Amino acid sequence: MIIHIETKVVNFLYTNTMDTKIINLELPPVLPHGWKKEVAHLLGIHVNTVTNALKDGKGDTYERIMKCAKEKYGKPSIK
Predict the structure, then answer these.
(1) In angstroms, how far is the first alpha carbon of the chain from the final one?
(2) Tens digits of per-residue pLDDT, 28-69?
């Protein structure tokens, strides 16, 4: 899975404009032990909610979980 995260970088050398960089993140094939608990804590939801959302594989909560996991454990993809 790939997610696009936009970061704003200010270029102070020449102008005061905002540049946008897109970083593609991929989840590793195996996430570390305790990742569900950590993501649940960061999102302020119960671990069972994470488990149920992953079983369903769709919905707003599922998307939030995947985005959080990619931001925390994802690695930049090389293309």
Answers:
(1) 14
(2) 899 999 999 999 999 999 999 999 999 999 999 999 999 999
Burial per residue of 50-67, b for 16 or more beta-carbon CB atoms within 10 angstroms, e otherwise: beebeeeeeeebbebbbb
- The number of helix segments (H) and strand segments (E) in the chain equals 3, 3
d(CA 65, CA 52): 11
Strands (E), 17-68: 18-26
Collapse the DSSP code of 58 into the 3-class scheme (helix H, G, I; strand E, B; otherwise coil) and give the result.
Answer: coil
Q: What is the pTM of this model?
A: 0.69
**Residue with tokens 């989840």, as numbered in its chain:** 27
